[in-house]
Amino acid sequence: MIRPQQKRAKNEKEFESSLKVGDKIVTKSGFHGKIAELAETTVVIETMSGKLKLERSAISLELSAALNKKA
């Protein structure tokens, strides 16, 4: 039971580190946007209503992958 959790955590950490400006993402709370700026632990995403500053950990690996698969 611990191994799948470790694998998931590793995948999420790799995803967070591979983010780049211009990527389309979905947050865990459901916000859709495009990355405008990156910092060490935070990102600024551009949405239809403006810009939001979020923690990198707030970005959903599964939802973002599904969004990018459609496009």
UniProtKB/TrEMBL annotation:
Membrane-topology descriptor: Single-pass membrane protein
Keyword tags: Cell membrane, Membrane, Protein transport, Translocation, Transmembrane, Transmembrane helix, Transport
Major localization class: membrane
Highest taxon of the lineage: Bacteria
InterPro entries: Preprotein_translocase_YajC (IPR003849)
Subcellular localization: Cell membrane
PANTHER family hit by this protein: SEC TRANSLOCON ACCESSORY COMPLEX SUBUNIT YAJC
Family statement: Belongs to the YajC family.
The protein, known as: Sec translocon accessory complex subunit YajC
Gene source species: Flavobacterium ginsengisoli
Gene name of this polypeptide: yajC
